[in-house]
Amino acid sequence: MPAKTAQSAASERIASTLNGWGMLILNIALLCGGFYLIASTAADGGPMRVIGGLSTLIGLIMLGGYFTLQPNQARVLILFGAYKGTVRSSGFHWANPFYSRSRGINSHKDSGSSEGDQRNRPGRRRAGGGLGLQWLSTKLSLRAHNFSSDAIKVNDKRGNPVEIAAVVVWRVENTAQAVFDVEDYTSYVEIQSESAIRSIASRYAYDQGEEHEITLRGGADEVALALKEELQVRLLKAGVIVEEARLTHLAYAPEIAPVMLRRQQAEAIIAARKIIVQNAVSMVHMALNELDQKNVVKLDDERKAAMVSNLLVVLCGNSDASPVINTGTLYT
């Protein structure tokens, strides 16, 4: 038979627990009853003392089954390596005291570059001796998380190096997939987010595209939607839902930024000149029509050309025109 290429996704199951307050009363009763039987039969012994000892032992073991959950928090129940379900309801709970309180994962990160980050993460502790083993709590937060990527350098669609960064809002939807289908779902989100940002940046040009082409700078909403869809496909394996993804930083890389700035300035000047020329031609046409309609002066084609030239120079020039008074005729 051919070997399986991938494991099926883990399926989350909702587990039921006992009310912590009711079990606490029973727990106290077992402990008090056990201590009383042991104390009352200390002289003569007998089976009642054995029962008292068992009651005390059971009560002590039961103390390890209490846990609390806040709103939007869940706990994955693992019994000797087997997944038994997930508790999502908030409050004071009691469950089998032999359920694991932590889960170990192998660390593949460089100790020099990420040691500080690992120490600062809540619910995470590192095994001694450099074994590369991390212990994570079986409690998971179902709240929305923010991941803000660093500015990374990537080539856009036209090969121009740009710096780009984004913020991703995500939350855990399937706790079983988050715990069992990936090694460390928080690290998985970070790495896949940066990979998706690089992929999206290479699909679009920074700002110079073809007609009606979406660009990184001009199509912020479209790019954000594409980034969210790309991330959702990548993070679905980890049971993570992407709420929002949006670019927070976009700029040319420093080595080409001055050249691109001059190009943008030149394009702005050309665009402004185009508008000025179009409006100047309209004003000259309007002036000639007004002169003809009101019979102010009759101009032949040569004088009209001279007048058009003078008006365009005045209207399109960068400096104010110096008036020249003609004391002769138009033909001298």
Brief synopsis:
With 332 residues, this protein is α+β, with helices and mostly antiparallel strands. The chain has 3 domains: 18-100, no CATH class; 144-255, Band 7 domain (Tetrahydropterin Synthase, Chain A, 2-Layer Sandwich); 258-316.
Q: What this model shows, in words?
A:
With 332 residues, the protein is of the alpha+beta class. It has 3 domains: 18-100, no CATH class; 144-255, Band 7 domain (Tetrahydropterin Synthase, Chain A); 258-316. It is 42% helix and 22% strand. The chain is built from 8 helices and 13 strands. It has helices spanning 20-40, 47-62, 111-120, 175-180, 185-201, 220-235, 257-293, 301-316, and strands spanning 18-19, 66-69, 73-79, 82-87, 91-94, 102-106, 124-126, 133-137, 139-141, 145-148, 152-155, 161-172, 240-252. Strands 10, 11, 12 and 13 form a 4-stranded antiparallel β-sheet that branches. A 3-stranded antiparallel β-sheet has the order 1-5-2, with helices on one face. Strand 3 (73-79) and strand 4 (82-87) form a beta hairpin. Helix 5 (185-201) crosses helix 6 and helix 7 crosses helix 8 (301-316). The radius of gyration is 38 Å and the shape is rod-shaped. The model is unreliable at 1-6, 109-123 and 125-131 (pLDDT under 50).
Descriptive labels:
single chain; 332 residues; alpha+beta; Tetrahydropterin Synthase, Chain A; 3 domains; four-stranded antiparallel beta sheet; three-stranded antiparallel beta sheet; 8 helices; 42% helix; rod-shaped; disordered N terminus
Gross geometry: rod-shaped
Number of helices: 8
Number of strands: 13
CATH topology name of the largest domain, in short, is Tetrahydropterin Synthase, Chain A
Second-tier CATH architecture of the largest domain? 2-Layer Sandwich
Q: Please tell me how large the radius of gyration is.
A: 38 Å
* Low-confidence regions: 1-6, 109-123, 125-131
Q: Could you say which structural class the secondary elements and strand pairing correspond to?
A: alpha+beta
Strand content: 15-25%
Number of domains: 3
The amount of helix comes to: 40-55%
Instruction: Using the coordinates above, name the CATH class of the largest domain.
Output: Alpha Beta
Instruction: Quote the distance from N terminus to C terminus.
Output: 104 Å
Most strands sheet: 4 strands, antiparallel
> In sequence order, what are the helices and strands, one letter per element?
EHHEEEEEHEEEEEEHHHEHH
Corresponding CATH superfamily of the largest domain: Band 7 domain
Average per-residue pLDDT, rounded, comes to 80
